[in-house]
Design goal:
Elements: E1 18-20, H1 22-27, E2 37-42, H2 54-67, E3 72-78, H3 82-93, E4 97-104, H4 111-115, H5 117-124, E5 128-133, H6 138-151, E6 156-158, H7 166-186, E7 192-197, H8 201-213, E8 219-223, H9 228-245, E9 257-260, H10 273-286, H11 295-307, E10 315-320, H12 331-334
Parallel strand pairs: 2-10, 3-4, 3-6, 4-5, 7-8, 7-10, 8-9
Antiparallel strand pairs: 1-2
Helix pairs in contact: 2-3, 2-7, 3-5, 7-8, 7-9, 8-9, 10-11
């Protein structure tokens, strides 16, 4: 795959580490000695304002924005959006204005949720913030802000939530190439990749990248919001579109797209006891800092499935998509629960 023809700009710290998780592996070992051999792909270490998976996508999206002479980035997300924080940082790095729309998706009125964590960083990075009620048509809201920017003489570039379009997903095609190269270098045979799946771009990019290169590594997405049928349809559609952009649409089949959406809990961004257990276990075994919204729920699912024997004998790579900055927005909910 010749990804340079899409002219990404480079600012991520790549390649990100691929590391074993020996103590978490031991903690999830069953009484019969089964369980997965766990590794982690550290995409929390991509470097942009604390890092995270959106940085890879933004390399391609910023390349396109600059090629189109944009002077303002516009995007959206939930109040504690990691994507919004990284987009604001990318805008600052390239001297662009940044307009962001934050949705009250969880309904939380907590002071820390609405003003700390990623929100504080958005403000520090100089983004112009608008907030809207939960359930707002976010695509329409983006279009309205873009019109406002254009009317005052600006040159807007709209980035969808999560950076999850065909261009953004190329960042995870590249990640697939990078991960397979790392595994080959150290002689690691990967049986499965596990990742959070939400706005679909990360999951779709991985599926498309692995399919086009013929790597034959299954990807399990642990859903954080949508029902299984909706999530898988979204990922499949985008993965096929990305593969088509690369010239091989037919290589992505429906069977390659698997999402387990049984671990969403009460809803997007809402914390439960199993998420808190996942946060604690990852932190207190191998020092991994996860977030309550994406990686915490993905780890919740991985832990539950491992305890059911789903990964016995497999080498599983957990894709750490970042988000620990959002922990500070959940202080009220987590306080007293981490003892």
């Amino acid at each position: 795959m010749h990804l340079a023809r899409f002219a990404p700009v480079r600012f991520a710290h790549l390649p990100t580490p691929l590391e074993p998780l020996p103590r978490l592996t031991e903690a999830l070992m069953t009484k019969g000695g089964g369980g997965p051999n766990l590794w982690v792909k550290r995409d929390d270490c991509t470097g942009l304002a604390g890092g995270g998976n959106k940085t890879r996508k933004l390399e391609y999206l910023l390349g396109d924005a600059l090629a189109n002479d944009a002077d303002t980035l516009i995007t959206q997300g939930a109040i504690q959006s990691n994507h919004v924080r990284q987009t604001a940082a990318a805008a600052a790095r390239f001297g662009l204005a940044c307009e962001i729309i934050l949705e009250h998706r969880t309904g939380s009125n907590a002071q820390d949720y609405n003003h700390s964590g990623n929100v504080l960083l958005d403000e520090l990075l100089g983004a112009k913030i608008r907030t809207v009620a939960g359930g707002t048509d976010m695509n329409q809201a983006l279009a309205e802000v873009a019109s406002e920017v254009a009317e005052r003489g600006g040159r807007p570039y709209v980035i969808p939530g999560g950076g999850s379009n065909i261009i953004g997903a190329l960042g995870y095609v590249e990640c697939a190439l990078e991960l397979v190269a790392q595994a080959n270098e150290i002689g690691l045979e990967i049986d499965r990749i596990v990742s959070a799946t939400g706005s679909a771009g990360t999951h779709a990019g991985l599926v498309a990248g692995l399919a086009v290169m013929g790597a034959d590594i299954p990807v399990l997405g642990i859903g954080v919001r949508a029902p299984k049928d909706v999530q898988e349809a979204n990922v499949f559609r985008l993965a096929q579109d990305v593969a088509e952009l690369l010239g091989h649409r037919e290589r992505v089949t429906r069977e390659m797209v698997v999402a387990d959406c049984d671990y969403v809990g009460r809803g997007y961004g809402l914390v439960d006891e199993a998420v808190i257990e996942a946060l604690k276990l990852a932190a207190r075994t191998d020092g991994l800092l996860l977030d309550p919204v994406y990686t915490g729920k993905a780890m919740k699912g991985l832990i539950a499935l491992a305890r059911k024997g789903a990964f016995d004998g497999e080498t599983v790579v957990f894709l750490h998509t970042g988000g620990a900055q959002g922990l500070f927005g959940y202080q009220t909910e987590l306080e007293g629960e981490l003892a």
